[in-house]
Amino acid sequence: MHAEPVAEAAPAVEIRGLVKRYAGKTAVDGLDLRIDRGAVTAVLGPNGAGKTTTIETCEGYRRPDAGTVRVLGLDPVRQAAELRPRIGVMLQSGGVYPGARAVEMLRHTAKLHAHPLDVDALVERLGLGSCGRTAYRRLSGGQQQRLALAMAVVGRPELVFLDEPTAGLDPQARRATWELVRDLRRDGVTVVVTTHHMEEAEELADRVAIVDRGKVIAEGTPAGLCRDGAEDSLHFEAPAGLDLGALVKVLPDGAAATETAPGHYRVQASPVDPQLVARVTAWCAEAGVLPERLTARQRTLEEVFLELTGRELRS
Ligand SMILES: Nc1ncnc2c1ncn2[C@@H]1O[C@H](COP(=O)(O)OP(=O)(O)OP(=O)(O)O)[C@@H](O)[C@H]1O
What we know:
The protein is of the alpha/beta class. Helix content is 32%, strand content 26%. The site of adenosine-5'-triphosphate has 11 residues, from helix 1.
């Protein structure tokens, strides 16, 4: 006899075939995305790709025109009352009463939750100490951002949505935000973050979803996306006119070697790994050639992003 299977916890977010239109214009076009619990997921995409619309649908602020959205197993519109206390939301536009005093508002929000974070410690770590009695509308843009972040996390939510949390922040505030996100992850909180900063996604995210024209067009770990289908390359300099036909013979199938300019060589292969470097250098040693300025390059997430979404500016 098998034991009864334990019901698996629902994923943090499960979106199937989401469609959202504004006045006939399709902003989200059959988007599928599953986000597991306990990880940081970065949602990337060009301006207007549909990221904010998707996130706001998960938060229950927008109703899908088609498809289904489940957040912690709940319908964000029909089961909003049950869902809201369990999620933290940082909106791009603040979503805060402009006349309210900054830290008072945070204290008030904390009191609405059963087990809030320590407000003073949060204020301190986000550098909001000097903003105590200042009205929200009088805070600088960066201070408003940090307060919105504090409001999103103060109630110790299970799942936090952060829409461009570091847009317009100075490097110190950006780092403080990253640290807070890392702490959330360490505490088992699921974080969904949209960003236009690729290094932020590489730095913070366990998984990345790239959205374009209302659909998820790629999904995986940052390292996996940089590796997948990648034409990575190895570069070195040596005397001009090396016999590259002989070099290619010792390389794995599919590898190519070219002299891009006299004495400048490029070896393309997938993957560029330590074995490839060893074969190239062993061949050079056989040929009595010193490969100078030998560099192995993997694509960055920004390069992958541009390859997938195109280099031209969208109108
Ligand atoms: N309230 C609205 N009314 C009409 N159109 C809208 C509305 N909100 C968004 N859109 C349109 O829907 C599309 C998707 O917008 P959305 O804000 O979801 O994109 P995004 O990926 O978050 O972009 P960004 O990176 O610029 O924030 C865009 O073409 C946008 O102009």
